[in-house]
TrEMBL record, chain A:
Its main location: nucleus. The gene is PSMG2. It is found in: Nucleus. The keyword Chaperone applies. This is Proteasome assembly chaperone 2. Keywords: Chaperone, Nucleus, Phosphoprotein, Proteasome.
TrEMBL record, chain B:
The gene is PSMG1. One of its GO terms (molecular function) is proteasome binding. This is Proteasome assembly chaperone 1. It is found in: Cytoplasm. Forms a heterodimer with PSMG2. The PSMG1-PSMG2 heterodimer interacts directly with the PSMA5 and PSMA7 proteasome alpha subunits. The keyword Cytoplasm applies. Residues 27-37 have a biased composition (Basic and acidic residues). Its main location: cytoplasm. It comes from Carlito syrichta. Keywords: Chaperone, Cytoplasm, Endoplasmic reticulum, Proteasome.
Length: 264, 290
């Protein structure tokens, strides 16, 4: 459930909700971190749920001493009212059998808060690509029917590739075709639920492998930026993408502590 | 997927924990009534129950609804538990008000009447002279699927802004992220995390990013307190000895000067003696031949 930081529940009518799926390489979550950090979004509340493993830490977007000691938990909501953007960040994995209840609770909150649309940032295993996908861009999009009406033309003008259907059961020759997102966590479940509940949802994903996924996250936010224009578009600003997006201070030591000098 | 040096293709573990998800969904679709019944029985077996000490009956409401509390102190893990036993619980008379009974693959908490030192337990006490001070000694492993049930049974759904919560626990020093090597850290050392509404100063430095606490139930309790605006502080001892250890337990000593514990601690030299005795009773002579 959504619990506001302050006394009153903020009005999110007409806002665009950006959220990650906990997926391969944690790309969606890294991308949301970049967005919250770059836009300096303020925390407006918590999504308190029994579906995610608990975790706490100090402010992951701290810029100095004064704001470094705000406690953060595993699911928090940030907003930028001037751009009518709200972001949900998920910082831990799902507890077994809790993915379906989470999807239901999340979408019920989305409907209740009158958000205009939801954009899910996700990823899928790159090793599961077919030959065509191997030769094309690694980015894909997916729209629910109610979203298609509004943005299909925009997607066409951006020359974006829609996520292809593949055999539901790969081992069987005459299996039906459906959209599969291996490694995408709750992406497919969220998408299916949104279709049936007529929620306007777009999924933006990248084919990735586990490793240093910071470049993948930068790629995904640039992809999103082509559509939403969160920061100045690439063509007007020739600087490298990594300099336009602000990496949060919590990304330090992503691959562990320093090494003992005696090792060398 | 990844190829090893020997040419075999292995499934690389996914950081996002998504491999199980797809199997889980497919399992859900293939589930028979018998599967559902097995799952229900397993859920019943894993239920967390809070029982009254004398009658062994379940509490009808959450613990803190039944026993209004101004101070709630919880020790998680053997070293934190030994600290509270030696320095807090032997000054003043503490009465057991209840215990949590739970089962998971790691622990089976049993009746608390005849506990051996090695057994896992989760017991709640209040101070006889001031029953609004409640203490929890928790040495059992609370699994992630039991975590929220445990929180609900203890805290309930009412928010309690008048309660101050103190949590003590340990982690291995290799969990601590620093630009130096963890081998050079002066273990054991203490770090703290506090909620927005906790206004007192901490007795040690705060845990810096990118470090996080995901240890159960410490992270669960602190998250709950942050969301519901309860003043709470977590004292985390990073140590290189995870079993019961004198030096690790003594690393918690700076907390004795905090507002929550100052009034509860009377005789520190005596406490140190009690702690030493606790160590020797727990020491098991072990070598590879026993």
């Amino acid at each position: 459930m959504f619990v506001p930081c302050g006394e009153s529940v903020p009005d999110l009518t007409g806002f665009t909700l950006l959220m990650p799926a906990v997926s391969v390489g944690n790309v969606g979550q890294l991308a949301i971190d970049l967005i919250i950090s770059t836009l300096n979004m303020s925390k407006i509340g918590y999504f308190y749920t029994d579906c995610l493993v608990p975790m706490v830490g100090n402010n992951p977007y701290a810029t100095g001493e004064e704001n470094s000691t705000e406690l953060s938990i595993n699911a928090e909501v940030y907003s930028l009212p001037s751009r009518r953007l709200v972001a949900l960040q998920l910082r831990s994995i799902f507890i077994k059998y809790k993915t379906k209840p989470f999807c239901e609770k999340l979408l019920s909150w989305v409907k209740g808060s009158n958000c205009a649309r939801v954009i899910v940032l996700s990823s899928s295993h790159s090793y599961q690509r077919n030959d065509l996908q191997l030769r094309s861009t690694p980015f894909r999009y997916l729209l629910t029917p109610s979203m298609q009406i509004n943005v299909q033309n925009k997607m066409k003008s951006l020359n974006w590739e829609e996520m292809e259907k593949s055999p539901c059961i790969p081992e069987i020759n005459d299996s039906e075709f459906c959209v599969r997102i291996p490694g995408g966590g709750i992406t497919k479940a969220l998408y299916d639920e949104s279709c049936s509940k007529e929620i306007q949802m777009a999924v933006l994903l990248k084919f990735v492998s586990e490793g240093d996924n910071i470049p993948d996250a930068l790629g995904l936010v640039e992809y999103l930026n082509e559509w939403l224009q969160i920061i100045k578009p690439h063509s007007e600003d020739p600087t490298v993408p990594s300099l336009r997006w602000k990496m949060p201070s919590s990304w330090r030591l992503l691959f562990g502590s320093g090494l003992p000098p005696a090792l060398f | 997927m990844a190829a090893t040096f020997f040419g075999e293709v292995v499934k690389a573990p996914c950081r996002a924990g998504t491999e199980e998800e797809e199997e889980e969904e497919e399992e859900g679709r293939r589930e028979t009534p018998e599967d559902r019944e097995v799952r229900r029985q397993l859920a019943r077996k894993r239920e967390v129950r809070l029982l009254r000490r004398q009658t062994k009956t379940s509490l009808e409401v959450s613990l803190l609804e039944k026993y209004p509390c101004s101070k709630f102190i919880i020790a998680i893990g053997n070293n934190a538990v030994a600290f509270l036993s030696s320095f807090v619980m032997n000054s003043g008379v503490w009465e057991e008000v209840g215990f949590a009974k739970l089962w998971n693959e790691w622990c089976r908490t049993t009746d608390t009447t005849h506990l051996s030192p090695a057994e896992a337990f989760c017991i709640f006490y209040h101070l006889k002279s001031n029953p609004s001070v409640i203490l929890c000694q928790c040495s059992c492993y609370v699994a992630e699927d039991q975590q929220y049930q445990w929180l609900e049974k203890v805290f309930g759904s009412c928010t309690r802004k008048n309660t101050q919560v103190t949590i003590l626990t340990c982690r291995h020093v290799t969990d601590y992220k620093t630009s130096e090597s963890t081998g050079s850290l002066p273990a054991p050392f203490l770090k703290a995390l506090k909620t927005q509404n906790f206004k007192d100063p901490a007795c040690c430095s705060l845990l810096e990013q990118p470090n996080i606490v995901h240890d159960l139930p410490a992270a669960g309790v602190l998250s709950y307190c942050q969301v519901w605006k309860i003043p709470a502080i977590l004292y985390l001892c990073y140590t290189d000895v995870m079993k019961l250890d004198l030096i690790t337990v003594e690393a918690f000593k700076p907390i004795l000067s905090s507002r929550s514990l100052k009034s509860l601690v009377k005789n520190i030299p005596q406490s140190t003696e009690i702690l030493k005795k606790l160590m020797t009773t727990n020491e098991v002579q072990s070598n590879i031949y026993t």
